[in-house]
Write a structure and sequence with these properties.
Blueprint lengths: L7 E6 L8 H4 L4 H8 L3 E8 L5 E8 L2 H15 L1 H8 L3 E7 L5 H16 L4 E5 L15 H15 L7 H6 L1 H4 L8 H19 L5 E7 L5 H13 L3 H4 L8 E5 L2 H13 L10 E2 L1 H7 L7 E7 L17 H6 L2 E8 L13 H13 L3 E4 L9 H13 L12 E4 L3 H13 L6 E5 L18 E4 L2 E4 L11 H4 L14 E2 L1 H4 L4 E8 L3 E4 L2 E4 L7 H4 L2 E2 L5 E2 L2 H13 L2 E9 L2 H12 L9
Parallel strand pairs: 3-5, 6-10, 6-11, 7-8, 7-9, 9-10, 12-22, 13-16, 13-17, 17-22
Antiparallel strand pairs: 1-4, 2-3, 2-4, 14-15, 18-19, 20-21
Helix pairs in contact: 3-4, 9-10, 16-21
InterPro entries: AAA+_ATPase, GIY-YIG_endonuc, P-loop_NTPase, SLFN_3-like_DNA/RNA_helicase
Pfam families: GIY-YIG, SLFN-g3_helicase
Protein name: GIY-YIG domain-containing protein
Length: about 600
């Protein structure tokens, strides 16, 4: 690849005086003017508010002078947001040029800019006119390099609006953004789902279930986020359907993920048409009586967290059934291996019937790719064997993925702290199975914190340490793992499910043991009441389902690490077996 030059970036005041005179305002040599006026460009228009937050518009154009005139003279007449922007006293226009820019590359850079700006904490409103993801083209392999060069230049202009690239990539809102380039598998699923939704709405169908299944890390959340964004921007001229009053909802039964989706929807202003666009399932069900007009589309992330029995303010028997009865189309993403609580429990027959309902309409979609764990297939297979087949096999050699077993819990924690401090390593935290007491409503009798104690390590459980005072208000909006004080805590499935970490240290507690060559789960050693209490089955009998739920807990924890997984096991026999596996000393125990 030829040497890639730095971009040209010009910052000008965005006001009425620049309209029609941009050519006069921008000086410089002929090369610079050629890149900004004769080549396609990417641009940002932004204004800072009193509280140091920003409203940002991202666009691309073949003619920056004409486009600027359009934004200043024409758009304010028909759109209030452009009228407000034109009246801002401190608004600016950033024009980005590069000698490798062509139409396809600028569209991709524009989309990448939307992806990154969505993850900037100080950006409160983000606008763009279209979704621009491009297929492969001549200079597509240069996109990441050129974008990083652009971002570094922008950061030099304003490091508040343009934070360190790594910080944004680590944020949950970035990872759940609807502006990611989809894999071919996700792209096919997206097209099928959008077509099915349009067909259902045009034929006035009701109660339709589109079920998307995939294991942890298969790209379900990004797919769902993208579909919600696209459905919110359906053009009635292209789908022969009146989309002006579509009522779309996104439901999630997880506190940390709820924060992320609410932030995305608010920044992109997708909540203008419908109140409580992002909602918890119980709130949605109770706010929409079954005899009221049905809403158009409901999307459910982490549908395995829906309740299958009454609890608290929910008086029904199955939340998915109640949602289907209140919507025309329901799109649910589901992973049976992430069901964690007795109130979420579905037996194999219930899962089969749910899948069959979707399959009959050709509405069952499977995602099979592993997109989170950046490892060789044999490493992913090792983790699956540990959880699904309950065997410990020799840990494979893998230059891409850092999988380590520790004999010392404190040493593992220290290694995670080193990773967390390293800008290149990024977001890293300690997690544990729920085998130590915790109560979010009260302190322990000694007045201290609920602690996780494993070997020579003792740390407080999640959601107990206070954030530094100067950032306390803003940090409340962030997921647990992104709050800086949480490097001193231990996370659980309740704070990490649905998210990922670059490096993940997992304390496997005493509920997971190794006996006679196999892993067993001891519910008596678990403090996870939600998993070990009896569940009332459909026939009225009470049953223990912990042997199905505790492996799911371990599955969630062991599949969070993108670039590395560190393990410490409290059970001595399990720890010894894992250490032997690390040395390649485990005999052949059948895993196929």
């Amino acid at each position: 690849m030829d040497k890639i030059d730095a971009p040209i970036i010009e910052k000008v005041t965005y006001d009425g005086e620049v309209a029609g005179h941009l050519n006069d305002v921008i000086g410089g040599d002929s090369k610079k003017r050629q890149l900004l006026f004769d080549y396609p460009t990417v641009y940002l228009i932004y204004a800072a508010n009193k509280n140091h937050s920003y409203e940002v518009y991202v666009g691309e154009t073949n003619d920056i002078e004409r486009r600027t005139q359009q934004h200043l003279n024409d758009d304010p007449r028909v759109r209030d947001d452009w009228k407000k922007m034109s009246q801002e006293s401190d608004a600016h226009l950033l024009i980005i040029g590069h000698d490798h820019f062509n139409k396809s590359l600028t569209l991709d850079i524009e989309n990448q800019m939307m992806l990154f700006m969505l993850g900037v904490p100080s950006v409160k409103r983000l606008n763009n006119r279209r979704e621009n993801e491009q297929n492969d083209y001549y200079t597509s392999d240069e996109k990441e390099i050129i974008f990083s060069k652009i971002w570094r230049r922008l950061r030099a202009l304003d490091n508040h609006l343009f934070p360190i690239e790594r910080e944004i990539r680590d944020s949950a809102i970035f990872k759940a953004s609807p502006f990611h380039k989809l894999t071919p598998e996700q792209e096919r699923a997206k097209d099928v789902i959008i077509d099915k939704v349009i067909d259902s709405l045009m034929k006035d169908k009701t109660g339709q279930l589109i079920l998307v299944e995939g294991e942890a890390g298969s790209g379900k959340t990004v797919l769902l986020s993208t579909i919600f964004y696209l459905l919110s921007h359906l053009d009635k001229s292209s789908v022969r359907l009146d989309t002006s009053n579509l009522k779309n909802y996104l439901l999630i039964n997880h506190d940390e993920q709820f924060k992320v989706y609410r932030d995305i929807i608010h920044k992109l202003e997708l909540d203008k048409r419908v109140r409580d666009t992002v909602s918890k399932p119980t709130h949605f069900i109770n706010s929409h009586p079954e005899d009221a007009p049905k809403v158009d589309i409901v999307l459910i992330d982490e549908a395995h967290l829906l309740w299958t029995q009454g609890k608290q303010a929910y008086r029904g028997k199955n939340q998915l059934d109640d949602i289907l009865n209140r919507s025309r189309v329901t799109i649910a993403v589901f992973d049976k291996k992430q069901i964690l609580k007795t109130e979420e429990y579905l037996d194999s027959d219930q899962i089969r019937r749910m899948e069959e309902r979707a399959r009959k309409q050709n509405d069952l979609i499977m995602l099979t790719n592993q997109l989170r764990i950046n490892a060789e297939p044999q490493t992913v297979h090792w983790i699956k064997n540990l959880i699904d087949k309950r065997v410990v096999t020799n840990i494979p050699s893998d230059k891409k993925y850092d999988l380590r077993v520790f004999d010392n819990a404190l040493e593992m924690y220290n290694q995670i702290k080193v990773k967390a401090k390293n800008e290149e390593s990024g977001l890293s935290r300690i997690l544990a199975t729920f085998d130590w007491k915790y109560n979010s409503k009260r302190k322990p009798k000694n007045g201290g914190n609920w602690m996780v104690t494993a070997g020579n390590l003792s740390l407080p459980w999640n959601l107990q340490l206070e954030a530094p005072k100067e950032v306390r208000k803003s940090k409340k909006k962030l997921p647990w793992a992104e709050q800086e004080q949480t490097i001193g805590e231990v996370g659980s499935t309740y704070t990490i499910q649905g998210f990922d970490l670059n490096y993940c240290g997992v304390i496997i507690g005493p509920s997971v043991k190794y006996r006679n060559g196999h892993i067993i789960f001891d519910s008596k050693m678990s403090e996870n009441t939600n998993a070990v209490r009896n569940r009332t089955l459909r026939d009225g009998q009470k049953a223990q389902v912990a042997d199905q739920l505790l492996p799911n807990e371990l599955n969630v924890l062991l599949t969070r690490g993108v670039n590395g997984l560190y393990i410490y096991a409290v059970d001595e026999q399990l720890r010894k077996a894992l250490l032997k596996a690390q040395q390649g000393l485990i005999g052949d125990n059948t895993t196929n």
